[in-house]
C-alpha cells in the first residue's frame, strides 16, 4: 500500500482508498459504463432518434439502440423526428432504457431489464 497526496486537501491517504479519509474527496474516477437507449421500430418513424446528455448527443435509426458511456447519475433527454415531446430521465451506469411512442405520437421513456431490439452501435 502506498500513500498518495489528496488532490483536495493535500494530506496523505492510501492509494487504495476510494475517497480521502480527511476531507471525503473522491480519489478514483469510476470508469464509465454504458447505458443503452433503444428506439422503437415504428412504420411512421423514418427520421432518427437522438439522445442528449452532458452537452453531447448521439443519434440512431428507427429500431436502433444508442449506447452512451457515463460514470455517474446523468439526465438524458430523448427526441424523435416527427414525434411529440422531449422527455427526460435520470439514468445511472448500466441502465437500459426503452423509448416508446403512444398512439397519439407522444414519446415516453422507461427503464427495462432487457431491451427488445438488437443492439447496434451508435453512428
Ligand atoms: Zn483530502
What does this structure look like?
This protein has 123 residues and is an all-beta fold. Helix content is 0%, strand content 41%. The protein contains no helices and ten strands. It has strands at residues 3-5, 12-14, 33-38, 49-53, 56-60, 65-70, 74-80, 88-91, 96-101, 107-112. It has a four-stranded mixed β-sheet, with no helix packed on it. A four-stranded antiparallel β-sheet has the order 5-4-7-8, with no helix packed on it. The protein has a two-stranded antiparallel sheet with strand order 1-2. Strand 4 and strand 5 form a beta hairpin. It is elongated and about 60 Å long. The termini are far apart. The structure holds zinc ion (ZN).
Number of contiguous helices? 0
> How many β-strand stretches?
10
List the helices and strands in order: EEEEEEEEEE
Q: Roughly what is the average pLDDT, rounded to an integer? A: 88
Helix content: under 10%
| Shape verdict | elongated
Low-confidence stretches: 118-123
What structural class is derived from the secondary structure elements? mainly beta
Radius of gyration: 19 Å
In this entry the ligands are: zinc ion
Keywords:
123 residues, binds zinc ion, disordered C terminus, mainly beta, four-stranded antiparallel sheet, elongated
